[in-house]
Design goal:
Elements (H helix, E strand, L loop, with lengths): L2 H30 L5 H25 L3 H21 L5
Helix pairs in contact: 1-2, 1-3, 2-3
Keywords: Membrane, Transmembrane, Transmembrane helix
Organism: Bordetella trematum
Protein name: Iron uptake protein
Amino acid sequence: MNKFHAAWAVTSRSLAGVVGGYAVLLALRFALRPLLDAGEAARSVVLLGFLIYPTCILASFGLRSAGRAWGVVACLCGGLAAVGLLAGGQP
């Protein structure tokens, strides 16, 4: 593995953890919005964010490849968005 490939892998995993963590929290807010009022949904996401955000960052470095990290983030966001749509949310 050359230096460029190693640096790109770390950068991609970092972006998957940081940006993906925010994306998962945004999707969770979207999923909770139809079920709770706006204030309750925001507070719930903030509290759950203390668990979800570090987990996304740690998981992005714990998975075998950066592509898998992005895949997990995409699946989580897609699943939460589907829950939000099924619960009656509007995009």
